[in-house]
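Quality-control log, excerpt.
Job 1 of 2 completed; input and output follow.
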Amino acid sequence: MRDYDDVLFPEGYQKIKDLEALIAKLTAENKQKMAMKDQQINDLNKKIEELEKPLSKSDAKLNQ
């Protein structure tokens, strides 16, 4: 059965469609930002691991 909201309430229907489009856009932007943050976290974790490696080697020398 067809939904006649677009015929009966054209202004409200258009506002709903505009809001749905805005929600979709903001959701996509949020996912992109979250992916960028995840990448930054991964990069920082790799840097931390790299910085810990030399400490481990110098600690090993001190323990000998």
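Job 2 of 2 completed; input and output follow.
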Amino acid sequence: MMAKAYLIDGRIIFDPEGSKLSRVVPAGINDIVPLNTPASRCFELLIIRQPEIISQQAMLDFVWGQKGAFVSANTLYQNISLLRKALKALELNNPVKTVSKKGFCLDSSLQISTIDTDTFLPSSHQGKNNNPMVPTYSFIESFIQPRTAIILLSLFSIFLIGYIYFSLQRHNAHQRFFDRYTHFTQSNGCDIFKPIADKATGRYLQYTQSHIINCPDKGSVYLSMPNGKTQVTMVICNKRIGQPEVKCRSFNQLREDENE
């Protein structure tokens, strides 16, 4: 089974198993933010059920399991506060919402997709990261002794339906993020895309004309050049995202100027 992580707004990676947040390509120690286990579990549940409102009790049960009945609400709020501080440190401001008398939810505008770390390995212009995050899922194991075959069949059916539902939700979230890109040119046989919201097409054309961009035959490159920053993010894929068996890698570079 491939290792899984979450890509948030195309720039932050959440590693549930490692209990940490980081930029796609960390430039320094401040770009990797550790989480304690309860805060990490809170964030994982918020992601899984985005944008649903999660009750306080449901959060306690997911994070602490059977011990949740003995954990105070104050402890839960402290961990939510720690999670918010960690997200703010990576410029994700207030994505965790408190809904009065109902619980918590994750901002629906946050674009989240599941990535396979075996094929989506962040790299910088200086070389590949030799220590990629390899998150895995954590499950609370329980053993039951069903009385009848009907109970077993019912439990299996619920699990299967839930697995299919969440798999489709994660896949659709990944697709929706890259739906916000538009094709604007070709270079060395590659289809080049940029964010629809970024109107500075000239800046992207200048970059593609002055840099050699290599990608697989008939591949696609998704460029992101945030205004006011020298960082260029490239997601290079063997085909267009959305097609079967697409495989991608992420690269970061620094451009020398900010000329539009």
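Post-run check on job 2. Helices lie at 37-48, 56-64, 73-89, 149-178, 201-210.
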